[in-house]
Automatic annotation (TrEMBL):
<dbReference type="InterPro" id="IPR039452">
    <property type="entry name" value="DUF5403"/>
</dbReference>
<dbReference type="Pfam" id="PF17395">
    <property type="entry name" value="DUF5403"/>
</dbReference>
<protein>
    <submittedName>
        <fullName>DUF5403 family protein</fullName>
    </submittedName>
</protein>
Length: 95
């Protein structure tokens, strides 16, 4: 009877071809997020908080600006009279 190596996920994650594809995908996703962020630049703080990290098997694109939720999804201005649409940069990295 066939069996599956219990470490198969670890074996596959470390294959050179898999790492290459993960890095290619990360690069494309990071480029899409950067494009959206740069197109809606106000102070530059959001773009400055964008970080792309690659470890042995994981890769992430993150935005650490404290206002990222309001900027990404939208918000009402301080007076509550005007709604500012979000830029949806996070979603750009998911597609």
């Amino acid at each position: 009877m066939a069996s599956v190596d219990p470490d198969l996920d670890r074996i596959v994650a470390h294959l050179p071809q898999v790492k290459t594809e993960i890095n290619r995908e990360l690069s494309q996703r990071a480029s899409r997020v950067r494009a959206v962020v740069n197109a809606h630049r106000d102070s530059g703080d959001l773009a400055g908080s964008l970080d792309v990290e690659t470890s042995t098997v994981d890769s992430t694109v993150s935005i650490a600006d404290p206002a990222v939720v309001s900027i990404n999804y939208g918000h009402w201005t301080a007076g509550g009279t005007t709604y500012v649409e979000g830029i949806h940069a996070i979603e750009a990295g998911l597609t």
